[in-house]
Amino acid sequence: MATLQEIVNNVWNSVTGFLKVGGTAAHDAAATGNPVQVGGVYRVADPAVADGDMASLRLNAKGEALVQLTGRSVALTVVYNALAITDTANHFSASIDVSAYKNIQLMAQSTLNQDVVLSLYPNGASPMKAWDGSAWSANTITLVNEPNPKPLNTKWTFLNNSPYFGTNGVGNIFYINAVCAIAPISGSITLLLLGVPN
Amino acid sequence: MPNETSKAVEWAKNQTLDLGYKIVSADSSPSLFVDKVREYFNTNGIEYTTFSYDDLLPFLS
Predict the structure, then answer these.
(1) Torsional sign, CA A140, A142, A143, A149
(2) What is the ipTM of this complex?
(3) Could you report the per-residue pLDDT of B10-33, keeping only the tens digit for each?
(4) Which of B30, B39, B42 lies nearest to residue A82, judging by beta carbons?
(5) B42 vs A contacts (CB less than 8 Å)
(6) Is B26 on the interface with A (CB under 8 A)?
(7) Whole-prediction pTM value?
(8) Mean pLDDT estimate for chain A
């Protein structure tokens, strides 16, 4: 039968390093109990560690973990799913609710053989206009057979801000309308909304 | 949708793009697929009204 000393030695020698484990309070005290807490180090200057080195988790001066996001989820809404327009009528999208997003991006692609004009309707009744220096004029986007996706935010820059489109003062809903002055005989238009969740 | 839509869908599935590869999956390139279906309608003188990829889904299942 192994002696207590042998058992201790076996355990001690089975790991690299020391078995001393902290826990139950300290730092600014109070909180005690079961969960084993994880600590980090606050450093004013960034440490210079080399490839393959161990490094301590970093905290800020308040003890908050310093982390950097390397990715984010983006939700996709199909506004026009390859709409093959054959006429000169208005083609309103379904209502687009952006209340779940803190940032949105509209991407459009058209292979229609005629120009297609896009308008944004904040309330479903009249299109959004823009101040041109002397009057409020139509704020439309014309796509001319653009097989590659185009970011509409580069024209409708207001989409880059908080995407709020009040409907009579409430709601975050808008519509898109697509219309052609000359009826296309080939191609289609696709419009996607990419939203970064709140 | 026109009565010939099923034929148009089957035809579109077997078309190749300018790059030389077939439109293997309609749902991976709805725009290209719809354009091909429309091309079939035009080539065969089939009358149709505005439609989208969503209208073709029943013919793809």
Answers:
(1) negative
(2) 0.87
(3) 999 888 766 655 555 556 688 989
(4) B30
(5) 185-186
(6) no
(7) 0.69
(8) 83
